[in-house]
Design a protein that fits this description.
alpha+beta, OB fold (Dihydrolipoamide Acetyltransferase, E2P), six-stranded antiparallel beta barrel, four-stranded antiparallel β-sheet, 48% helix, rod-shaped
Length: 383
């Protein structure tokens, strides 16, 4: 009975209330931080696995170093550091007095030679016209003299035959002394006339020879003209070279750009080939980056990339891969590493990659550090 009564008392005793456990605020914050760190780590790991990040990158441009082609004292330096200059604008002036005198001296010598050349040309033109007519006239006179000589010869032969017949008739007393004397006189007259015509022919031949000697003089003048033309051409080349040397005393900007640095001031002496200033085109720039060789398989020309400029962290730029280098940067090292000891340490090589900005920004300057992000997936490239 006692056990029954105890069981009844136990059943009549009320059940204890269940206590709910409360989470401390500090524990909740720690759990949230761990969850956020886990999510960030997972995102960071995914981002690093799906993109190529390059820290070794900067904005680049063609930095043009100008040198002097002549030596001399700098008289003026119109360009100043940071100044925008137009293409062809004078940047540096070198004393040009000696070069100017040399150019003027050659100009005067060329003017004298031109005058001599013109005089020879005029003489040639005159002699060519006069000599041709004189030769033609002398040859005509020579032909006439030959005709007259032939005619005189025929007359002399006829008179000789008449005289010989008269001489035969006189011996037979068939011709009077007076007729014989007349025929002899006619023969001797025709003989003298033939000699006279022969002398005239020799004179005509001499005249033709003299006129033809004038043609030889004309040939000599032609040779003189050719020599003068050759000297004239050589002097013109010297004059043009002197003009180029004179122009080199003014160093002009090859492009429209900004002067980045000056290395010489007015009053200093500049040597031939010495650098005088540096400039670049502010409208032409790109990103030059060195990508690890292990990431090259994810790159191709035309692929899009994101660029973060350290100077402007609030803006993300888009760029396009324009060129991938054909050799590692170590191949261009000034001091090669032949590894004569045989100890080898493998180092990941880097290849230069050029990226062009999709949109211009005048705030970008050569040398600014940037970070490049290139997706490894080719889906964005349309492959």
């Amino acid at each position: 009975m006692a056990e029954v009564a105890r069981i009844g008392q136990d059943e009549a005793r009320p059940m204890p209330a269940v206590r709910r456990r409360r989470i401390a605020p500090r524990s909740a914050a720690v759990a949230a931080a761990l969850l956020a760190a886990t999510l960030f780590g997972a995102w960071w790991l995914y981002d690093r696995l799906t993109n190529v990040y390059v820290m070794d990158a900067r904005v680049a441009s063609d930095m043009i170093l100008l040198s002097s082609r002549v030596a001399g004292w700098v008289t003026e330096r119109p360009a100043t550091k940071g100044e925008r200059v137009a293409a062809g604008a004078p940047l540096l002036l070198v004393d040009d007095r000696q070069a100017r005198l040399r150019r003027d001296e050659l100009e005067a010598a060329l003017a004298t030679l031109d005058a001599r050349t013109d005089a020879v040309k005029a003489e040639i033109a005159y002699m060519r016209g006069a000599t041709a007519s004189r030769i033609e006239s002398a040859e005509s006179e020579l032909a006439a003299a030959r005709s007259e000589l032939d005619a005189a010869g025929s007359i002399r032969e006829t008179a000789e035959d008449e005289w010989r017949r008269a001489d035969a008739l006189r011996e037979r007393n068939l011709l009077s002394e007076q007729d014989w004397a007349a025929r002899r006189t006619a023969f001797r007259t025709s003989e003298q006339a033939e000699k006279s015509r022969a002398a005239q022919l020799r004179g005509a031949e001499a005249d033709v020879a003299e006129r033809r000697s004038e043609q030889a003089r004309l040939d000599m003048l032609d040779a003189e003209l050719a020599r003068l033309e050759s000297e004239r051409l050589a002097l013109r080349l010297q004059r043009d070279r002197a003009g180029e040397e004179l122009a080199d005393h003014v160093i002009r900007s090859p492009i429209a750009g900004v002067v980045d640095q000056t290395f010489i001031d007015a009053g200093e002496y500049v040597a031939e080939g010495q650098r005088v200033l540096m400039l670049h085109d502010p409208d032409v720039y790109w990103v030059r980056t060195n990508v690890k060789e292990t990431d090259l398989r994810h790159l191709r020309v035309g692929k899009q990339a994101e660029v973060q400029v350290d100077a402007f962290p609030d803006k993300t730029y888009t760029a396009t891969v324009a060129r991938i280098g054909h050799a590692a940067t170590s191949e261009f090292a000034l001091l090669p590493n032949p590894n004569p000891s045989g100890n080898f340490t493998k180092i990941t090589q880097r290849v230069e990659v050029k990226l062009t900005f999709d949109e211009p920004d005048p705030r970008l300057r050569p040398g600014l550090m940037v970070e490049v992000k290139i997706p490894k997936s080719d889906a964005d490239a349309g492959e």
